[in-house]
Amino acid sequence: MTNIPNILTSIRIILIPVFVLVFFMPFDGVNIAVAAIFGVAAVTDWLDGYLARKW
Known about the structure:
Helix content: over 70%
Strand content: under 5%
Transmembrane segments: 7-26
Structural class: mainly alpha
Shape: elongated
Distance between the termini: 15 Å
Number of helices: 2
Low-confidence stretches: none
Keywords: Membrane, Transmembrane, Transmembrane helix
Number of strands: 0
Number of domains: 1
Pfam family, one: CDP-OH_P_transf
InterPro entries: CDP-OH_P_trans (IPR000462), CDP-OH_PTrfase_TM_dom (IPR043130)
Largest sheet: none
Protein name: CDP-diacylglycerol--glycerol-3-phosphate 3-phosphatidyltransferase
Mean pLDDT: 92
């Protein structure tokens, strides 16, 4: 796993259980936290696709 697109995909896979755990946590900023995690996943998905096409 030496290329950047694979690392970004691995990060997204790791973010899945983090997203689910934070989603079900009872605290006031859960919506913001989940949106931030989703945003990170979306950006890494875009960057992964961009880099995969470039290389």
